[in-house]
Specification:
Blueprint: E1 4-8, E2 11-18, E3 33-37, H1 43-60, E4 71-73, E5 77-85, E6 88-95, E7 98-102, E8 108-112, H2 119-137, H3 140-146, H4 149-165, H5 174-178, H6 188-204, E9 208-215, E10 218-222, H7 226-239, H8 248-253, H9 258-266, E11 267-270, E12 281-284, E13 292-293, E14 321-326, E15 363-374, E16 377-383, H10 391-420, E17 427-432, E18 437-440, H11 445-448, H12 451-466, E19 473-477, E20 483-489, E21 492-498, H13 505-519
Helix pairs in contact: 2-7, 3-4, 6-10
């Protein structure tokens, strides 16, 4: 019999949160644990994992007090560590891929691929998970201080356990670590029409704050702070399925596995119940779409046509609470001038801008999130938590915005078709760290890029982020004679894959120059 070989891909080993503030006495070490997943581990095993992690953190701290330990590599697992709040640590651990070989004599050997899980990708993933928690729950310290640590543990359990059931290491790639936003370029008149629509709606309904406007999976306008919009965008596209199964962003952010992608498209947030007793949790949203409110108050009856879809009425979910950073103090009088985004883009501009707040002005505040969806347009509105909108309010809001959406939908569809319908000659990915703009010609990365090429792209990005040599360009010729080029200029990254098997280095450089001139003129400065 010949030798056989079995490959086991990377998978989730564990995810936990702990605090060094508790469990100082012998026999109480388990009190450090705030949350641990999966629950198959015994309390002793959980305590040992937390103790080992805390020991490694304390050991490394004297060597780098300003930059605490962020990753740990072992033969079988790789861990990413995050210290998002004082005295609170979150740890994501993945099982390294392995190859099991069975020889002719029947003996088996297991070899672990220790360099498969990139530090940068895991660190960004654990940051994304925390950002999702923070958006729908606020800070852990605020819950701990306002109530008790037992309440924090309960809320962590309610949120993370269902959330992690949707997690797949297929998602841990270049797209997930960039966390970019697809923007829809529109001409000045259309942009001003949308901006005017948002401002009129906010003036008509003083309870509404900080709206956002999307067409399918593309952001057109936002009054939210940039990082909050990034997290909300990820939630909308990857978990609520905004944009549909054909969306560029979904296929760019999700797994190449159709099963995992379908699961993430159906995921959604389920907020506290109307009594406010239950913590926010992560749940699965029905695949059936609803034309009208995606989120609304729990006591709101199912709206009648045209709020409900023709295929059947689907009750709206309770409007969840979200914690977002305000661009000015909450007691500041609301004014159109202070909430105005940056000027509209010129005709043919590549990306529509997003309103960005100054970090020193940030103030985190809780709001209800209302999502209204109609004809491929999604509008987000934030409502003050003290306000409990009734059915009349929601009907009035619908009657106000529905005609505007009906008018804008065919216009935006024309821009969307123009943007996504063009045949792309190159396979490229572009990301701008300054405005989070992501542009790619990869409609479905699972079909377009092999696992090996994606791994190379991950490694190039990690080199750009972590290298002390200030790397700005990487060119790789693969074993299959493909070319991979990565370039970094200031806060922008650009990757392209060429199939030219017989091309040489000079010809590839010329192709990159042509591509940059065609799609990204004036972006890269030599």
């Amino acid at each position: 019999a010949s030798m056989s070989e079995t490959i086991k891909p990377a998978s989730l080993h564990s995810f936990f949160a702990f605090t060094p503030r508790l469990g100082h006495k012998e026999g109480t070490e388990h009190e450090k644990i705030l949350f641990f997943y999966p629950p198959k581990f015994t309390i002793s095993e959980q305590t040992n994992s937390v103790g080992l992690t805390e020991a490694l953190i304390n050991f490394c701290n004297p060597f780098s007090p300003e930059k605490p330990c962020r990753s740990v590599h072992r033969e079988r697992v790789t861990s990413a560590l995050l210290n998002p709040e004082k005295d609170i640590w979150i740890v994501l651990t993945g099982n390294n891929p392995s190859v099991t070989r069975t020889g002719k004599d029947g003996k088996t050997t297991v070899v672990y691929i220790e360099d498969e899980l990139e530090d940068t990708l895991l660190e960004n993933m654990v940051q994304h998970i925390y950002n999702m928690w923070r958006l729908f729950n606020g800070s852990m310290h605020s819950i701990w201080e306002a109530q008790k640590v037992v309440t924090l543990r309960s809320q962590l359990e309610s949120f993370f356990t269902p959330f992690l059931t949707t997690f797949s290491f297929d998602q841990v790639d270049l797209f997930s670590t960039l966390g970019g936003i697809h923007f829809l370029p529109v001409d000045k008149n259309v942009y001003l029409r949308i901006q005017n629509f948002i401002h009129i709606t906010e003036d008509t309904f003083p309870r509404l704050y900080y709206a956002a406007f999307l067409y399918r999976d593309h952001l057109v306008w936002s009054g939210l702070e940039q990082e909050d919009m990034r997290t909300l965008y990820s939630h909308l596209v990857n978990y609520l399925g905004v944009g549909g199964s054909g969306s560029d962003a979904l296929q760019g952010m999700g797994s190449s596995s159709s099963g995992s992608s379908d699961l993430r498209r159906s995921g959604g947030m389920k907020p506290p119940d109307s009594s406010g007793a239950s913590p926010s949790s992560f749940s699965i949203r029905s695949a059936k779409r609803n034309s009208g409110y995606v989120t609304g108050p729990s006591d709101t009856p199912v709206p009648s046509t045209p709020l409900s879809s023709s295929s059947g009425s689907v009750p709206p979910m309770t409007a969840p609470k979200v914690w977002v950073n305000m661009p000015y103090p909450s007691n500041h009088a609301k004014s159109s001038a202070s909430s105005m985004p940056s000027p509209p883009p010129s005709p043919g501009a590549l990306f529509a801008p997003v309103a960005i707040s100054r970090p020193e002005d940030k103030e985190e505040k809780c709001y209800h999130l209302v999502i209204y969806e109609l004809q491929d347009i999604t509008c987000l509105f934030l409502i003050e938590p003290e306000v409990q909108p009734d059915q009349a309010f929601y009907n009035h809001l619908h009657e106000t915005i529905q005609p505007q959406i009906t008018f804008l939908s065919p216009i935006l569809n024309e821009h969307y078709t123009r943007k996504t319908g063009a045949e792309e000659q190159y396979r490229y990915v572009y990301f701008n760290h300054m405005n989070l703009a992501l542009k790619t010609s990869l409609r479905s990365k699972g079909a377009d890029l092999s696992r090996d090429i994606m791994k190379m792209l991950n490694e190039i990005h990690s080199d750009f982020v972590n290298s002390t040599e200030n790397i700005t360009e990487v060119l790789i010729r693969t074993a299959g004679d493909k070319w991979i080029v990565g370039r970094k200029s200031d806060q922008r990254e650009f990757y392209v894959v060429f199939e030219n098997k017989n091309a040489n280095l000079l010809e590839i450089n010329e192709e990159v120059r042509k591509l940059s001139a065609t799609y990204f003129n004036n972006i890269f400065i030599d």
